[in-house]
Amino acid sequence: MRNFEYFEPKTFAEASALLTRYGGEAELLGGGTDLIIGMKDRTLTPGYVISLEHVPGIEGITYDDCDGLWVGAMTKMRAIERSSIVRERYTALAEGAEEVGSIQIRNLATLGGNIAHGSPAADTAAALLVLDAQVKIAGGEVERSVPIADFYLGPGQTVLRTGEILTGFSMPARSANSGSQYLKHKIRQVMDLAFVGVATSVSLSNGTVTDTKIGLAAVAPKPIRATDAEAIITGSSLSGEVLRQAAGAAAGQSSPISDLRCTAEHRREIVAALTKETATTAVARAQV
């Protein structure tokens, strides 16, 4: 591991100033579950590491029926998966958090870190897409909000500018007749990257799907919405034929690669299968 200088800022302004001063030579430290591994195998060699552990106001989960859900960027995955309000109303996010590594890892890993690295396979990305998450970003005295769909630019690339820090995520309140699910296809039962990740969220009215959102991870240069499939499901009562058409449309919108773990063709087949399953489960949850 390369020698580096370590900082523990006590305010957000101090953290942002340090990040601006050292630019591309600096890395932010949240839970460290990605950063430390990268530094050990020297795929990441920062000269400066800036910890966010002691910066107030960017950790925690709050909810109310007007403003919806707020999850701070430094909130641990274990806290998200165990949160009763997340599990009840934002179920896909709890299921995405639950897929991150082992319990030991989830006690360290943060939601902000999972998203800020720009990985197309991030386990919480598809869930955030279908839950209409807004990414809260601040740098210096400037704050802005970016829809999660616009946050990613490509593999490892995001809209974050020099000196900017991801501070949290907001999601609108969800009605009682809504449901969601996230599923991940992988080789091992735990601690494996997704071949494919699919999340689906629906809202119902009198048995008809009035709103559908389908998020795909690990099958494109960035997490994407399967908008063609969404259009097929919305306005339907989710028959077998609708599911078949939607599954094919979701697979068609994906653009996976072939690698040592899986072929592109097989990944599209998995997209279709998981789209059917998550849509069916989301509708069932919305009916409870």
Describe the protein's architecture and organization.
Strand 6 and strand 7 form a beta hairpin. Helix 10 packs antiparallel against helix 11 (about 240-255) and helix 11 (about 240-255) crosses helix 12. By secondary structure, this protein is of the alpha+beta class. The longest helix has 24 residues, at about 265-285. It contains twelve helices and 14 strands. The chain has three domains: about 5-50, Uridine Diphospho-n-acetylenolpyruvylglucosamine Reductase, domain 2, CATH 3.30.43.10; about 60-170, Uridine Diphospho-n-acetylenolpyruvylglucosamine Reductase, domain 3 (2-Layer Sandwich), CATH 3.30.465.10; about 180-285, Enolase-like, domain 1 (2-Layer Sandwich). The chain has a five-stranded antiparallel sheet with strand order 4-5-10-6-7.
Tally of helical segments: 12
User: What does the largest sheet look like?
Assistant: 5 strands, antiparallel
In order across it, which strands form the biggest sheet?
4-5-10-6-7
Number of DSSP strands? 14
- Total of domains: 3
Q: Provide the residue-averaged pLDDT.
A: 94
The termini sit apart by 52 Å
CATH fold-level label of the largest domain: Uridine Diphospho-n-acetylenolpyruvylglucosamine Reductase, domain 3
Strand percentage lies at 25-35%
